[in-house]
Write a structure and sequence with these properties.
- With 512 residues, the chain is an alpha/beta fold.
- It folds into 3 domains: 37-94, no CATH class; 97-140 and 403-504, Alpha-Beta Complex (Aspartate Aminotransferase, domain 1), CATH 3.90.1150; 173-395, Type I PLP-dependent aspartate aminotransferase-like (Major domain) (Aspartate Aminotransferase, domain 2, 3-Layer(aba) Sandwich).
- 41% of the residues lie in helices and 16% in strands.
- The chain is built from 18 helices and 17 strands.
- Helix 7 packs parallel to helix 15 (382-395), helix 10 (254-267) packs parallel to helix 11 and helix 16 runs parallel beside helix 18 (487-504).
- The longest helix is centred in the first third of the chain and has 30 residues, at 37-66.
- The radius of gyration is 24 Å and the shape is globular.
Length: 512
């Protein structure tokens, strides 16, 4: 850990390596412990001004509508109820639209180490765009290309091209109706072997993997889902669709999880107080907005103590964590048998699409017959299956090379180098060691477009995130590190971020 990162003691009963004995200060602690009152007040003042100007523009627009000079953007045809609520779109129209150019940037290349961004301009305050016909080449620090498999040359791409000739582009039917290709069966078997589970099932879309699997596992009365506060929206949607009772615990806090779990068992189901038929804990391997790794050993101990089930979403951790890329279980030295459901996606480290669920064979057989993503959705596209399969085999060394291991080590080295570099320069940069997600706190809303636009001019593409995706005070830029990045790429980025940090006053520093 860097010298400028404060550590906190683990909860009582924690055993094991230094990883479980110390914990980084989390993002949620920062505005309380390290950000000055002046900086916090400045952020609130900025949002207040944005609100005042937004409401003033709304007032002027309503006058124009009353005078017949402008038509309401929310007007419904005569006799119809309005489809949109004006209040709900206030933020989109008066806040987001001002910085819409920072998002939805079209690219004209592979989303690899470098990308070509299609230049565009707006003549109507970002309501619409027109392309200039030119592109800007940038270092790509915004894509989840963790192991650098977003590439258009090499043996994996050659195998993908061959699979198109053999299988075409689509399955053209759900697996339960038309069956699966032998290639999909190979991917399922290889995935199960890679993560250390008896069987696996693949889905054509990562988001649908959670949102259709959780309802199948948690349907019926008397089921309780205990979810981390910062779990992904796909988990939230899947949990809500299941009809189960949902309760949340503080982010990555085993002590709060245990208290909530114990209280839920004691109190039983609402009204009847009968025992819960099933309790499922859902966490993520790496939290994509925080770069934090879940405290799996402590969570597993709690799960065993209270005989609950554990569902781990490894969308961002599979391929990226562990000496062999096998995910959060390998990172912590946890036996995969202690995790009931291992879910992951092929969209990040593997450079493909879709997702998987790995578990015991009887659970996978049940999901094949009940999960909506298997019954109603078309299967995973064959060339995408081949891409994921080729990446898996390279990581496992089954291609006869050590290239996969080299990429994993390079990813860890790059991630730790970049995070430490930001911290040493005085930025609030967070995330755990080896995590390829490196969030850097910006807090002030006006600094988001300032940094993003300035970096784009210097040939660096990044992702910025603010309210309502994050809490009001916790706006940030999120760097996604890849094994494809060279040390020169990262040093250049650090230099540019440092210079802009001085201009935008982003070096808040971390005071012990």
């Amino acid at each position: 850990m860097g010298s400028d990162v404060k550590t906190m003691p683990a909860q009582k009963g924690t055993k094991g390596t230094q990883k479980t004995e110390e914990r980084r200060v989390t993002i949620d602690d920062i505005h309380v412990e390290h950000l000055s009152y002046f900086a916090v007040s400045f952020v609130y003042c900025a949002y207040t001004l944005l609100l005042l100007f937004g409401y003033f523009r709304e007032f002027l627009e309503k006058i124009q509508i009353l005078l017949g000079l402008k038509q309401s953007p929310f007007a419904a045809p005569k006799g119809y109820a309005p489809l949109f609520k004006e209040l709900e779109y206030f933020w989109l129209r008066r806040f987001y639209q001002r910085i819409r150019d920072l998002f939805e940037r079209p690219i004209a290349s592979v989303a690899g180490r470098k990308i070509k961004i299609m230049e565009r301009v707006s003549d109507d305050e970002n309501t619409s765009y027109r392309f200039t016909g030119t592109t800007t080449e940038c270092l790509n620090l915004g894509s989840y290309n963790y192991l650098g498999f977003a590439e258009n040359s090499g043996p994996i791409i050659d195998s993908v091209a061959a699979s198109i000739k053999k299988y075409s582009f689509a399955t053209a039917s759900p697996a339960i109706e038309g069956g699966n290709y032998d290639l999909i069966k190979q991917l399922e078997a290889t995935t199960a072997r890679f993560v250390g589970k008896p069987d696996a099932i693949v889905f054509g879309m990562g988001f649908a993997t959670n949102s259709t699997t959780i309802p199948a596992l948690c349907s019926g009365k008397g089921v309780l889902i205990i979810s981390d506060t910062l779990n992904h929206n796909s988990i939230v949607n899947g949990s809500r669709a299941s009809g189960a009772v949902i309760r949340v615990f503080k982010h990555n806090d085993p002590a709060d999880l245990e208290k909530l779990l114990r209280d839920s068992i004691v109190e039983g189901q609402p009204r009847t107080r009968r025992p819960w038929k099933k309790i499922i804990i859902i966490v993520e391997g790496i939290y994509s907005m925080e770069g934090e790794i879940c405290r799996l050993p402590e969570i597993v101990a709690i799960k065993k103590k209270y005989k609950a089930y554990l569902y781990v979403d490894e969308a961002h951790s599979i391929g990226a964590l562990g000496a062999h890329g096998r995910g959060v279980c390998e990172h912590w030295g946890v036996d995969p048998a202690d995790i009931d459901i291992l879910m992951g996606t092929f969209t990040k480290a593997f450079g493909s699409v879709g997702g998987y669920v790995a578990s015991d064979k009887y659970i996978i057989d049940y999901l094949r017959a009940t999960a909506y993503g298997q019954i109603y959705a078309s299967g995973m596209s064959p060339p995408c299956v081949q891409q994921a399969l080729g990446a898996l085999k390279m990581i496992m060394g089954e291609d006869g090379t050590t290239e996969g291991m080299k990429r994993i080590k390079r990813l860890h080295d790059n991630s730790n180098f970049f995070r430490k570099g930001l911290q040493e320069m005085g930025f609030h940069a967070f995330g755990d060691d080896d995590s390829p997600v490196v969030p850097m706190m910006m807090y002030h809303p006006a600094k988001l477009p300032g940094l993003s636009r300035a970096l784009l001019k210097r040939g660096i593409a990044v992702v910025i995130v603010g309210f309502p995706v994050t809490p009001l005070l916790l706006s940030r830029v999120r760097f996604c590190i890849s094994s494809a990045h060279t040390r020169e790429d990262l040093e250049y980025t650090l230099k540019q971020v440092s210079e802009l940090g001085d201009i935008l006053l982003l070096k808040y520093g971390i005071h012990k």
